[in-house]
Specification:
This protein is an alpha+beta fold. Helices cover 43% and strands 21% of the residues. It has twelve helices and 15 strands. The chain has helices at residues 4-57, 62-76, 111-114, 121-127, 135-143, 197-243, 292-310, 316-327, 389-392, 411-414, 425-436, 440-456, and strands at 81-87, 94-99, 147-149, 168-176, 179-188, 254-261, 269-275, 280-288, 337-345, 350-356, 362-365, 370-373, 396-399, 405-409, 465-472. The strands form three sheets. The chain has a five-stranded antiparallel beta sheet, sandwiched between helices. The protein has a five-stranded antiparallel beta sheet with strand order 6-15-14-11-12. A five-stranded antiparallel beta sheet has the order 7-8-9-10-13. Strand 7 and strand 8 (280-288) form a beta hairpin. Helix 6 (197-243) packs parallel to helix 7.
Length: 473
């Protein structure tokens, strides 16, 4: 028989061992569950990051990325509702990029609004913009500090008016470098635990990766848009090239050559050769104020109107008056067109010119090798409806002798700049004409463009350059 004391000790020892064993089993089970939870979180985070990468490499809409960010954060952190808000272009407001149907309002909502019969939370959340002073969302955005709301935090009261009846929430500003992109916000409803500090750390990491993805997506989008614009501009360049003359016309008794060098892909300069009738040819040069696409569109309009009015009309000033009358109603107040239009008569030296505010053509006299300006009065197209324009714009006739040249140009020639900011100037234009007049019309253009290129050097061309030379044989 065991003594009673010893038996009691053995029972106590066995009970202790059983208790320790049970506690160890509980600890092991708890550690296993914790490890499984961590592994699950790791898997969810990995899937989230993988999804972000796939969204950036795939051709998808921005909304796909927005949905992925919000739903990924909800899945990883066992949240019930959330939203992504992005800063507008001006940086003054947050606009909803995506919100779940049961997303709580992270901003102040007037109570009377929610009592309206046709009030819809999803519709309201999709349209509601947020200012920096508006609720916890505005505060997080303006202060650029993440926020964890849990327990008895009084700020949760405003979040409980929505469909979720928020119990706990996390908000984090999204920024990349110095650029503020928006705010990511998620919440848990009743029946769930509050977000823990460890959840908050994970949420901030998710927000950081989301900000990087959003910024990268913006860069990709801008690059794609620039590529599309470049393609559109290239098409516009090809169309404009087609609108300009491919070759100079053959006019008995004359030699003609012209060139256009745009400063950008499309040009606001214009030149053209127009068959007036069997014995006359029109030569036009024009410069639209401004540069780029707007100027090129006005140039195309000008070309169309000029050609419609030039047929069988031997008065260049009459043609310009009609062009002005048609273009004036459609040209913006801050735009105008300078133009010179000349009509050449075949087998004679007669040339009739009208100048609508354009740079004065230059006449090279072969007899004494001098260059002088032909400067008849006239005002630019599109400034006046016709009362003044028609009065000051008239025809001017001149007769070219053998080897005389008339040079028409735009201000991109005389105002071309070198690296020091100095202009090419009229003196250099005249010098180039005198040095190359004996080489014919094409020779003058070659010399002028070569001199311009040498003068400008590596300095970028800031204005379109157009030249036409008419030489009497």
């Amino acid at each position: 028989m065991w003594p009673a004391a010893l038996l009691a000790l053995l029972v106590l020892t066995a009970g202790t061992f059983a208790y320790v064993y049970r506690r160890q089993r509980e600890m092991i089970d708890a550690l296993r569950r914790a490890r499984e939870k961590i592994q699950l979180e790791e898997t969810r985070v990995f899937d989230f990051l993988h999804g972000l990468g796939a969204a950036l490499t795939a051709v998808s809409k921005p909304t796909d990325l927005h949905v992925l960010i919000v739903e990924g954060a909800l899945r990883i952190l066992d949240a019930h509702g959330g939203a992504l808000y992005l800063s507008d272009r001006a940086g003054d407001l947050l606009r909803p990029a995506f919100a779940t149907r049961n997303c709580p309002p992270f901003f102040d909502v007037p109570e009377k609004l929610t009592r309206e019969a046709n009030f819809s939370w999803p519709g309201y959340l999709r349209l509601r913009t947020v200012s920096p002073e508006d609720g916890v969302l505005g505060a997080v955005w303006s202060e650029q500090e993440p926020l964890l709301l849990r327990g008895e935090d009084s700020r949760l009261v405003a979040l409980r008016v929505g469909p979720l009846r928020t119990k706990s929430a996390m908000l984090c500003p999204l920024f990349y470098g110095q650029e503020s992109l928006g705010v990511l916000a998620i919440a848990r409803g009743p029946g769930s635990d509050d977000f823990a500090p460890s959840d908050f750390q994970i949420f901030k990491a998710i927000s950081e990766q989301s900000a990087f993805a959003l910024y990268t997506a913006t860069i990709f989008s801008d690059a794609a848009e620039k590529k599309r614009l470049d393609q559109d501009l290239q098409v516009a360049h090809e169309i404009q090239r087609i609108l300009l003359p491919a070759n100079a016309p053959e006019i008995s008794g004359f030699q003609i050559s012209g060139i256009n060098v745009p400063a950008r892909q499309v040009s606001g300069d214009y030149y053209d050769y127009i068959k007036v009738d069997e014995t006359h040819c029109g030569v036009a040069i024009a410069d639209v104020s401004g540069k780029g696409v707007p100027a090129s569109l006005i140039m195309a309009m000008c070309r169309s109107v000029l050609r419609s009015q030039a047929s069988s009309q031997l008065s260049p000033s009459y043609v310009l008056r009609e062009v002005n009358a048609q273009l004036f109603p459609d040209i913006k107040e801050d735009m105008f067109i300078s133009m010179a239009y000349a009509i050449i008569e075949r087998d004679s030296g007669t040339l009739t010119l009208s100048r609508a505010g354009h740079d004065a053509p230059l006449l090279y006299s072969a007899r004494d090798q001098t260059v002088s300006k032909i400067n008849p009065p006239g005002m630019a197209l599109g400034i006046d409806s016709g009362g003044v324009f028609n009065r000051v714009t008239n025809d001017f006739s001149l007769t070219l002798e053998t080897n005389d040249c008339l040079v028409l140009y735009t201000d991109g020639v005389t105002e071309a700049l070198d690296s020091e900011g100095e202009e090419f100037g009229m003196a250099n234009v005249i010098k180039a004409i005198q040095a190359s007049a004996s080489d014919g019309a094409a020779g003058i253009i070659t010399r002028l463009t070569d001199d311009l290129r040498a003068f400008v050097g590596q300095h970028p061309q800031h204005d379109d350059i157009t030249l036409i030379v008419i030489r009497k044989k």
